[in-house]
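Progress against Task 2.4 (sequence-to-structure conversion) is shown through the following example record, which the project officer requested during the mid-term review.
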Amino acid sequence: MARVAVSAGQLSGRRIGVHDGYLEALARLGSYGILVPGQIGDLEESDMKAAAKELIASTDALMLTGGGDVDPALYGQTVNSDRVYGIEVNRDRIERTLLDEALRQGHKILAICRGIQVVNVYFGGTLMQDLETSGKSKHSLTEHEYEYSHGITISEDSQLARLLPGIDQANSLHHQAVDEPGGDLVVTAVSEDGVVEAMERPGLVAVQWHPERLIDFDPAQMNLFRWLVS
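Structure tokens generated for the chain above:
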């Protein structure tokens, strides 16, 4: 039974949590998630790092989940769109620390939606703060949250292609995306309009779509979670 550290974000009404699909996917594999709230990022630097080290050491893998936007200051920009929303400085801080510790301890990492953006910024990349403003098509297709909504192309020689053979579509619930890829990351999937849909490096798979919302629509998406806990 694998234990997975799962990052959690601020919800409305002073609530902290995640979409239940993340936890359901793990449960179907006989594993479970341990939620890590952004408030840990409010600790003093040494205390936060100690907490992250202990959390990662007590779990088997790390999952970075969806949520609001990463603070543009972390990739050398200021907010340049009125569509930027949900910045949680403390969540940015603890997720980067968890990522750092998971890499150091050799844990597998699955990063989803906001997660791929956190990973890209961690490795020195940048983000498009709003896709439509950047000349891309709308990718926040909430009416198709639990089904495929647009095509993607997955690189044939990638870990992702081995996990999702034959998959050429994704759902789409984001308005930001990778702009300049970070160092040590390989882009392994793109959308029809050229938006980065996945990146990877050894032990890390990051996707822009939401597989946790597709596990009933297309059970093949479970392979991402199966890889994480294997």
